[in-house]
Every structure is written in C-alpha cells, then in structure tokens.
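DEPOSITED CHAIN:
***
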Amino acid sequence: MDDATIETKSAVEHTAAAGQHAYKETVAQAAQAGQAAFKDTMEKSLSAINDMNAQAKRNVEAVVASLTAATHGAEALSTQAMAFTKKSVEGQVEHSKALTSARSMQELIELQTSFAKTAFETYVSEITHAAETLSTAMKDSLRPLNERATAMAETLQSQR
C-alpha cells in the first residue's frame, strides 16, 4: 500500500473511533438525563401521594370529630328531653292532686288556667333551650368539616 492509502485508512479509523466515542458519550448523557428525570418524577409522585394520604387522614379525623360532636349534641338533647318529661309528669301529678282538692268550680277553672299557662310557658322555654342546644351541636359538629374544607381550599389555592 502506498503512503496516501495508509494515511487515508488511518484517518478513517481515527475518525470512526472519534465518532464511536462521541456516540457512546451522547448515549451515556441521554441515559443519565433520563434517569435523573425519572428519579425526579418518582420523587414528586411519591411526595404528592404522601400529601394526599395526609389530607385523607386529616379528613377522616375531621369526620370522626364531627360525628363525636354530633353524638354529644344528641346526648345533650336526650338528657334535656328526659329531664323535661320527668318534670312535666311530676307537674301534672301535682296539678291532678290540686284539682281533686278544689272546693268549687271557680277554683277548679282557676287552677286549670294557671296550670295551662305555666305548662305552655315551660314548654316554650324548653323548646327554646332545645333549639339552642341543637344549634350549638350543629355548629360543633360542622366545625371540623368546615376547617378541613378551608384547609383544602387553601392548599388548592397555594398550588396554583
């Protein structure tokens, strides 16, 4: 072979080796970039899943707190109703005794009128008290849910 052919062959081999090296380096860089992007995406996904799990846990806790408050409200209403019923029955028994001891029709009518007035006022007072208790129970039972809804809205607003 002549010198020009040898030189050309050597240049071609050198160029091929340089191209092969550049190709390997480019592939390695692309693989490294792909791995970094995959790792970053996985970390973000896991972080989002952890955030969702934490939100779900707080939501369940809020529902439990709401149900607990509603239960306490129902217990309070039940206690009030039982106390009113007992007081009402006792009042009716006393009123019946008073009616049997009336000496005239006029006294009987006065006793019955007084009892009816007192019973109505007591009933209205009890209904007002029960409405207040119910209102408080509703506020207490909705508070944890409202707090969670507000927190979720704030979280969504901060993600924009």
Observations:
- The chain has a mean pLDDT of 91.
- Helices lie at 3-100, 105-159.
- The chain is about 95% helix and 0% strand.
- The CA atoms of residues 30 and 36 lie 10 Å apart.
